[in-house]
Design brief:
Elements lengths: L2 H12 L5 H16 L3 H6 L7 H15 L4 H5 L1 E4 L2 E4 L9 H13 L7 E5 L5 H9 L4 E6 L2 H13 L5 E4 L14 E6 L4 E2 L8 H6 L6 E2 L6 H13 E10 L5 H10 L3 E7 L5 E8 L2
Parallel strand pairs: 3-4, 3-6, 4-5, 6-9, 7-8
Antiparallel strand pairs: 1-2, 9-11, 10-11
Helix pairs in contact: 1-2, 1-4, 6-7
């Protein structure tokens, strides 16, 4: 089967669920994954014959997409802050609003600053790696409770040639010590969706993305923010900043929590959809 033939064959299947532009993107991305030919070279080489192994793998992947599995998981990667980020069902698929969070941090600091940054709940490592790619002199650490997620993050660091340290850490169960403050910035996109909201979410998110990275108990929806604020009081340097991604309906609740823990100068930032999505606050020490 040629490149042109495999595109034509699967186009009608995909048309039941996707727009013409989406279909073109799906087919081109899967073909690039298997042939290393970009969209232009796929057109130039449309009569190239594909191996039976590629045809078989392609058919399996199209079926997974038709069945509702997120395209990024089927492809095995996505793009985030101009970085190729490997993803699987052990990590969340990076969202555009998380890119905006990274951009906020990057724009708040100069490229040559030597600063220490901690990303709590790093998942695929996208936040830590995005920051490191722009702030080359920053020392960046990413932590996560999931060893499977950390494996993905370490792979992403290696493949993007970025020096970020990743390690296991559970912010809900750590033993404080008398170590000096370590970080100029602590950033987190923690689980912030109450399990009560599960039925309101897209089924493919609930079915395929890791629940541990999405949901909190109904009776403690801000538990991770409280834990990170408590942690940051000890480990954030004087005049350091804490950055959060947040639930669009919880901004004022988190502001109140931030003030309760003694942080100041809290700022809410909206995403490109006009939703309250990020907060930063200052620690005076």
């Amino acid at each position: 089967m040629t490149i042109a033939a495999i595109k034509a064959y699967h186009k009608s299947e995909l048309a039941k669920k996707f727009s013409e532009n989406e279909i073109a993107h799906i087919l081109a991305a899967l073909l690039e994954k298997h042939t290393d030919l970009d969209k232009t070279n796929q057109i130039i080489n449309e009569e190239q014959t594909l191996s039976s192994e590629i045809v078989e793998a392609f058919e399996t992947e199209i079926k997974r997409i038709i069945d509702g599995e997120p395209f990024q998981y089927v492809l095995g990667y996505t793009w985030f802050y101009d970085l190729k980020i490997n993803v699987n069902n052990h990590v969340l698929i990076p969202r555009p609003e998380t890119e905006e969070l990274v951009d906020w941090i990057v724009n708040d600091y100069t490229k040559n600053e030597s600063i220490d940054i901690l990303d709590i709940g790093t998942g695929s490592g996208c936040i830590a790696l995005g920051i490191k790619s722009a702030l080359k002199n920053a020392k960046v650490t990413g932590v996560d409770i999931s060893e499977d997620a950390l494996s993905v993050a370490k792979k992403n660091a290696a493949e993007n040639n970025l020096e970020v340290h990743f390690e296991a850490f559970d912010v809900l169960n750590y033993l404080p010590n008398k170590q000096n403050a370590l970080y100029d910035i602590i950033v987190s996109n923690p689980p912030y969706i109450s399990i009560d909201e599960k039925d309101q979410m897209a089924y493919w998110v609930v079915k395929y993305e890791p629940a541990i990275a999405l949901f909190t108990k109904a009776d403690s929806p801000l538990i991770f923010y409280e834990a990170i604020l408590g942690f940051s009081r000890q480990y954030l340097k004087k005049d350091g900043y804490l950055y959060f991604e947040i639930h669009e309906e919880k901004a004022q609740d988190i502001i109140a929590l931030i003030e309760k823990f003694g942080f100041t100068n809290a700022v809410i930032k909206q995403d490109l959809q006009g939703k309250d999505r990020m907060i930063k606050a200052n620690w005076k020490g």
